[in-house]
Design brief:
Elements: H1 2-22, H2 38-42, H3 50-75
Helix pairs in contact: 1-3
Length: 76
Amino acid sequence: MYEILLTVMLILSIFIIIVIAMQPTKTQSASNAFMGGASQLFGKQKARGFEAVLIKTTVVSLILFFVLSFLLTRFF
């Protein structure tokens, strides 16, 4: 049972890395952090389409990851 949960956790961690890497960036460049990119902060719109699916997939995957890590540390 321990090996199965550990394998699922390994696959899930690779999946989380891929999903996070696929998400689009929020700023045009790093200079926006220093040059007044705050206008985009308050003008944020709700994510739609593929971006919304990626956000929900990331949240569900991270919750599963933490549940699995809790199970592995608590019961084994």
